[in-house]
Amino acid sequence: MTLKRTALYENHVQAGAKIVPFAGYEMPVQYSGVIDEHTTVRTKVGLFDVSHMGEVEFKGEKALAVANRIITNDLNRIEDGQACYTAMCRPDGGIIDDLVTYRISAEHILICVNASNREKDFNWMKEQAKGECEVIDRSDDYVQIAVQGPNAVELVGRLTETDVTTIGTYRFAMGQIDGKDAIISRTGYTGEDGFELYVGSEDGSAIWDALMAKGEDLGVKPAGLGARDSLRLEMCFALYGNDIDETTHPFESRLGWVVKLDKDEFIGKEALTKIKADGNTRRMVGFEMIDRGIARHDYPVVNEAGEEVGKVTSGTKGPSVNKAVGIAFVPVSHAKAGSEILISIRGKSAKALVVKTPFYKKA
């Protein structure tokens, strides 16, 4: 398969990035090093190229109603200029994707989808819309730059006339960055304050360079997929394809809060209502290792007899918490904070402790 490149590819090469295949793209995994980039985001400000993510627009008189029918959260509960995190489920409740949905107006909804699901999501959305509104794949029209960290507000403010201090969390403004049209969204995937900037593909490279130049005194650095993963894992944010997929449902995946069963009909409502009533047999939890070792994706959670009873979905040593932490599905009997679980690491059972999350909490 021929790998794609984002509009920022040359910026990454010039910055000395290590490039790896990811979700069909050649993407930077690190520049100065994962721990250095991770720490920069926690203490100063980092830039991520997330242009591999997809964007789908719903346009027309029924745009809000159609989008609302496809997602589990409720767009009627938010205002124009506000975003919501949500799931998009199959009729049986399985998670097709987790999304950020932007309510530009009742006639114009923008949904950000995961990179690996771009084609699948667009086809599903188009099919479910049934011609009631326009559904347009805008993925190749946008460059998306995440500006994350304590100095993000100062940095973005230097490149726009929009007062970014007035943009609340999960809200956005239509403005300009470095003189180019942009959606300035107070969202992110790191646990730090910051923005995700949606700009035209033709403008992305120059805006990336402008952010790097304007942020030099703020300690800005480019950050890659490695730091993005360790930052989100310290916050116990799910990664689609690792932690959640079509075989998992929101209530067992710590996403019950984005399912509004009291709203009008939506895809998966009947199944999810039953699932909630029946209760979970397993649950996603955060854990930290007691014994030595790092539990990685797909390592089995086992009982005393060594039989598999669950599965690790993500794991690493968190640079900010200085502990080996992870996410796993375990039986509900072991899902409470304080429960000990066993994880098979290279054939040996290692003890871990289920803990409250997020693992990283700001001082």
Q: Can you describe this structure?
A:
There is one protein chain. With 363 residues, this protein is of the alpha+beta class. Among the domains are: 137 residues, Probable tRNA modification gtpase trme, domain 1 (Gyrase A, domain 2); 75 residues, Aminomethyltransferase beta-barrel domains (Elongation Factor Tu (Ef-tu), domain 3). The chain is built from 8 helices and 19 strands. The strands form 4 sheets. A 6-stranded mixed sheet has the order 10-11-12-9-3-13. α2 packs across α7. It starts with 8 loop residues before the first helix and ends in an 8-residue tail after the last strand.
Helices and strands in order:
Blueprint: H1 9-14, E1 18-22, E2 25-30, H2 34-43, E3 46-49, E4 54-59, H3 63-70, E5 82-89, E6 95-105, E7 108-113, H4 118-129, E8 134-137, E9 142-148, H5 152-157, E10 172-177, E11 180-185, E12 194-200, H6 204-214, E13 221-222, H7 225-234, H8 269-278, E14 282-289, E15 300-302, E16 308-318, E17 323-331, E18 340-345, E19 348-355
Parallel strand pairs: 3-13
Antiparallel strand pairs: 1-2, 3-9, 4-7, 4-8, 5-6, 6-7, 9-12, 10-11, 11-12, 14-17, 14-19, 15-16, 15-18, 16-17, 18-19
